[in-house]
Amino acid sequence: MLTRESSVALVPLRGFLGVAFTYAGIQKVANPAFLRASSPISIQQSLDLAVRTSPVGGLLRPLLHLGVEVGIAMAITETLVGLSLLLGFHVRVGAVVGLAVSFSLFLTVSYHAAPWFTGADIVYVFAWSALILAPPTPWSLDEWRLRRRVSSTT
């Protein structure tokens, strides 16, 4: 089992993923082209491409007319996951959601990266798994809550 001292090693990973996901979510909201269907960098264009090229394209077809809604949901989800990690609040829940987002992006966006290990999304999947398996890391609200719970029972 990881001790507090050994889980310190995961703090930089938690920080990086927190910053990356918070930035990704905010950037989507700040960029008007992301939600404009006619833009080549829009979520709508990404959905259109994923339906044709992704191994889960058939599952995405019902979302084609919901590009703006999918984009807003992605932005909110990424921002909340990022903030969860930065604060260290419910990190495991945030990591599970982050893993799901990254795996979805792997299957829809970076699936055809060649060679496969050059796509960033698959690396994110395994980075999230470390935070799912680890105990609360230092300098987190999760650790603070755990310490309070332990001290109140002794």
Can you describe what's shown?
With 154 residues, this protein is mainly alpha-helical. The protein has one domain. It has nine helices and no strands. It has helices at 4-7, 11-30, 32-35, 43-53, 57-60, 67-87, 91-108, 120-133, 141-153. It starts with a helix and ends with a helix.
Features:
154 residues, single chain, mainly alpha, 71% helix
Estimate the strand proportion.
under 5%
Order of secondary-structure elements: HHHHHHHHH
Contiguous runs where pLDDT drops below 50 for at least 5 residues:
none
Proportion of residues in helical segments? over 70%
Task: Return the average pLDDT rounded to an integer.
Answer: 94
- What is the number of domains? 1
Please count the helical segments.
9
The largest pleated sheet is described as: none
Give me the count of strands.
0
Ends apart, CA distance between termini: 22 Å
The whole-angstrom Rg is 18 Å
Shape: elongated
Class from helix and strand fractions: mainly alpha
Write the layout of secondary structure elements.
Elements: H1 4-7, H2 11-30, H3 32-35, H4 43-53, H5 57-60, H6 67-87, H7 91-108, H8 120-133, H9 141-153
Helix pairs in contact: 2-6, 6-7, 7-8
